[in-house]
Amino acid sequence: GAVVSQHPSRVICKSGTSVKIECRSLDFQATTMFWYRQFPKKSLMLMATSNEGSKATYEQGVEKDKFLINHASLTLSTLTVTSAHPEDSSFYICSARRDRLNYGYTFGSGTRLTVV
Amino acid sequence: DAKTTQPPSMDCAEGRAANLPCNHSTISGNEYVYWYRQIHSQGPQYIIHGLKNNETNEMASLIITEDRKSSTLILPHATLRDTAVYYCIASGYNQAGTALIFGKGTTLSVSS
């Protein structure tokens, strides 16, 4: 089946530093990947759509300079939280879908970011 | 994407069937109905999706009404491990770049 690997699962960083989160599709190619953010007891909120070889498309209200997205290959997208602050602490989740019919979207296991 | 409406919470006894309803009265003809679930602190897990016909897989069954304005996810024999938040999403499928937009979902609690 389709597997999406997300790393790291947990990260603690100091305010002002940057953190990179990786999302890999292990057994399929994905021209498009998606990044979500989730606050405690809330639903997933779409942050951006990551397109292989081109710039990401950000949702309204999401700062593209703070949340840098790179989709360097058909199997890897990265989200970098730059100059992190405590309010950036959250659960970040990536997703991808095979570019073929009859497949659902596969999600990574998520990254718990804590900024201290 | 069409908006979906789900009850905020449901309870189910272990071993019983769990029937989770979803209303999507504004769904358009090319939008599929997806069901995902999320167990605490994990990424969402795909359950099933369909367009018009009822669907069944090893996890669940999806019943879509003939007018496609509502659907029901059926977990035939709920277990404690089925306790999770269940999301019903109506979304266009043909475009690979279309993201899933999550609503609030239904928190299903399975008890022994």
What does this structure look like?
The complex is a heterodimer of chains A (116) and B (112). Chain A is 0% helix and 53% strand. Chain A has 116 residues and is mostly beta strands. In chain A, strands 2, 4, 5, 6, 9, 10 and 11 form a 7-stranded mixed β-sheet that branches. Chain A has strands at residues 4-7, 10-13, 19-25, 32-38, 44-51, 57-58, 67-73, 76-81, 90-97, 105-107, 111-115. Chain B is mainly β. In chain B, strand 3 and strand 4 form a beta hairpin. Helices cover 0% and strands 46% of the residues of chain B. In chain B, the strands form 2 sheets. In chain B, strands 1-9-8-3-4 form a 5-stranded mixed β-sheet, with no helix packed on it. A 4-stranded antiparallel β-sheet of chain B has the order 2-7-6-5, with no helix packed on it. The mean pLDDT of chain B is 92. The chains are: A mainly beta (116), B mainly beta (112). The interface between A and B is medium-sized, with 26 and 21 residues.
